[in-house]
Amino acid sequence: MPRLNVSPTKSGLLALKRQLAFAEEGRDLLEQKRQILIFELMRRLERTGELEQRVADAYRRALTALREAALDIGSAALERAALGGGAPAMGQGAGQRLAGVRLPRLQAPPAADAAPFGVGGTSASTDAAARRFAALPPLLAELAELETAVRRLAGELRKTQRRCNALTKVFIPRCRETVTYIAESLEEREREERIILKMTRDRLAAAAEVSATA
Asked: What is the pTM of this model?
């Protein structure tokens, strides 16, 4: 693995050691974030599966009630009754931030506040169908909220994993190798300087002895 382009000096070695410590700390924080994201993602995936089944069951019951209402008062009367109602309101509340990810908060009115059908020319079966369809928007809002959170958490998890891999498999190994190389180079340079200094002292001592005997 190629080393980093750092000057093999003591100051360069100290700066590189600080970078290495900072990178290792960042790697540890990213790993903690990755674990949090995995936990939250799996938790929401489980909830999403359960809620999808609830939505499917509620939708099936609503369709069954709608068919019964159509048989009871007729399709034309049922369409006229439906024109008397309005679409349920859907709003977005204050979301939350989790591990740097903004998670949305969707809100829909409860079933008691919704009135998708008018009241004229209807029957008990029509009211039952209205109640069952009115129960769907809160479930759909919760499901949309969960699915959006899952997509965002999964995207952030991929980015975190790439950053963690870049530090763990590329930068930190290169940084450690460069630290070792510079440290060994400095040690070799110091040994050479000590040898040269000793040789210089020996020569000066020999020259002093020659001068003293002359």
From this structure: 0.72
